Task: inverse folding
């Protein structure tokens, strides 16, 4: 199906097409280019113009450029614009304008990508569904997702992220969601914001992009919930809180063998659903998702049934059998809130020794060492048998732990991974968690090299 003709793309971006073309997709990476794609020559670590010839040779139908690159014929299928990123934003804006379905925007300090995937899976069978790939949630990821959106999309799920103040609102105004959900507000990127209240204000700015009358789905019972509610109210949104006492709430959740069965009340309706995880934070996000989908006009009961097909993404809490141990791979990101949730998931699993392997939590600001040490007092930590740590910040937690619970400490994750035989034993239940830049995923890789793995989520007992 044609996504953009040269005339449509030129009208959207104000660019000049060197010749007629029609594209069926949009790509920024020659390694994953597909036949018929429009290759967008963004400038990041490297200049995308250097890869235009390769993209066309690999089957791209055209390229979006700000100049004719060397080695590319002047009559090649190109859309020439003043600035490639600005043109991508314009193409995304045009993609959003022609779509007549419903848009759901998702942000939050923790759980954006897994929650976006929950929404995508839950909408199975309810029309044409379009969602961001991977964690495409930044200044190029959001416009790219919108530019890729088919015109006949019934439901779109747009993930919106940030690292610094002022990033979310322009992306929200570009996406123009009908429903916007905040998963939670936690101590992430504190170096850029100084205090959690600043993070809450940035997250709350997603509501400024709502199509009116829009719906704001906000987490209840946070210290900063009122800040989120104030932003929603100022935007004229209908406010739906999710949490233990919210308009969307879990009533009962039973976990056995890594599977959680839930009965929930969503905007006055009772809904039953099953999640392939023991994490209660996933349960709460699922409740928020169902509230968002209901507000967007989806079939709530069908969405609840479809959630049974969702699995946590790799590196974000998937549970797997791994050669005689059970592994919770949560090595993609970490902050005090998500680490507390990970420890709680580990504590709920039974049948073996509970072992946590933890890498540094990054971007926490000047109090980072105290925040690491404070995890020793987390309620779930009392049920963890052994804690191995890696990184200079995690040394603070290592020193704060009681000696009986204190495992190995290494200054790098690679050093810890080199001692993999000392970290776990047959029958253990193992959580591996840390910020991505801590490279604690190398410990996961070492575990997988030394043990035979099943697919994540399969064979869990």
Result:
């Amino acid at each position: 199906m044609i996504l953009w003709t040269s005339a449509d793309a030129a009208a959207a971006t104000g660019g000049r097409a060197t010749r007629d073309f029609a594209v069926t997709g949009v790509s920024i990476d020659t390694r994953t280019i597909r036949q018929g794609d429009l290759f967008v020559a963004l400038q990041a670590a490297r200049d995308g113009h250097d890869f235009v010839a390769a993209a066309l040779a690999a089957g791209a139908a055209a390229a979006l450029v700000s100049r004719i690159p060397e080695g590319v014929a002047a009559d090649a299928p190109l859309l020439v614009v003043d600035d490639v990123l600005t043109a991508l934003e314009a193409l995304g804006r045009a993609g959003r304008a022609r779509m007549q379905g419903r848009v759901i925007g998702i942000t939050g300090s923790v759980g954006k990508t897994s929650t976006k995937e929950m929404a995508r899976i839950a909408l199975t069978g309810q029309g044409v569904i379009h969602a961001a790939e991977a964690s495409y949630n930044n200044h190029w990821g959001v416009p790219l997702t919108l530019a890729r959106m088919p015109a006949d999309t019934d439901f779109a799920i747009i993930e919106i992220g940030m690292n610094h103040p002022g990033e979310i609102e322009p992306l929200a105004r570009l996406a123009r969601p009908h429903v916007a959900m905040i998963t939670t507000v936690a101590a992430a990127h504190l170096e850029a914001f100084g205090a959690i209240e600043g993070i809450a204000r940035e997250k709350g700015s997603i509501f400024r992009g709502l199509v009116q009358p829009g719906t704001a789905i906000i987490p209840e019972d946070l210290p900063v919930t009122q800040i989120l509610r104030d932003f929603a109210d100022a935007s004229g949104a209908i406010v739906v809180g999710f949490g233990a006492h919210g308009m969307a709430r879990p009533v009962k959740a039973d976990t056995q063998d890594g599977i959680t069965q839930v009965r929930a009340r969503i905007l006055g309706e009772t809904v039953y659903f099953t999640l392939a995880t023991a994490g209660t934070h996933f349960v709460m996000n699922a409740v928020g998702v169902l509230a968002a989908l209901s507000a967007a006009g989806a079939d709530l009961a069908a969405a609840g049934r479809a959630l049974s097909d969702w699995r946590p993404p790799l590196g974000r809490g998937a549970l797997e059998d791994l050669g005689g141990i059970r592994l919770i791979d949560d090595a993609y990101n970490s902050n005090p809130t998500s680490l507390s949730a990970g420890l709680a998931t580990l504590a709920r699993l039974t049948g073996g020794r509970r072992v946590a392997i933890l890498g540094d939590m990054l971007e926490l600001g000047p109090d980072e060492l105290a925040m690491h040490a404070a995890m020793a007092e987390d309620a779930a930590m009392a049920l963890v048998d052994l804690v191995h740590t890696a990184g200079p910040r995690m040394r603070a937690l290592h020193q704060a732990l009681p000696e009986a619970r204190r495992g190995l400490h290494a200054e790098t994750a690679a050093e810890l991974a080199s001692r993999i035989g000392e970290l776990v034993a047959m029958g253990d239940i193992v959580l591996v968690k840390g910020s991505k830049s801590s490279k604690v995923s190398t410990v996961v890789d070492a575990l997988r090299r030394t043990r035979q793995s099943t697919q994540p989520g399969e064979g869990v007992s």
